[in-house]
Amino acid sequence: MVDSRRRELSDLDINTIRQLYSAHKVEWTSHVSKRLLQRGISSSEVEASINTGAIIENYPDDYPYPSCLLMGKSKENRVLHIVCAINNDTLWIITAYEPNMIEWEADFKTRKEQSQ
Predict the structure, then answer these.
(1) Where would I find the beta strands (DSSP E) of the chain?
(2) Residue pair 80/74 in contact by the 8 Å Cβ criterion
(3) What does the pLDDT look like over 64-101, one tens digit per residue?
(4) Whole-prediction pTM value?
(5) How far apart are CA 98 and CA 60, in angstroms?
(6) What are the chain's domains?
């Protein structure tokens, strides 16, 4: 039996993420707060990225909650990656960053293959 307080990975969809964010059922980790400041990313850019974004990777084995990576754009057309998780009907924003061309293809959705 699945713990009813913990959402299944299948529930980690972009619409649920958007609904929780717009309902202000969101927690920002101390990690993301530091990183946003260091990287010059505003919370409004995170919000716009969630509203325009799509899930590009799922991390079902993340601890303490399954999480996902979404890619979206700010109102200024800045591409951002947001890592977030859901637990107990709360959206957790874990980190946010601008993807770089070293690790990502030009679409910023596809990781480049690692060279050996």
Answers:
(1) 26-28, 54-59, 67-73, 79-87, 90-97
(2) yes
(3) 999 999 999 999 999 999 999 999 899 999 999 999 99
(4) 0.85
(5) 23
(6) 9-97 (3.30.2310)
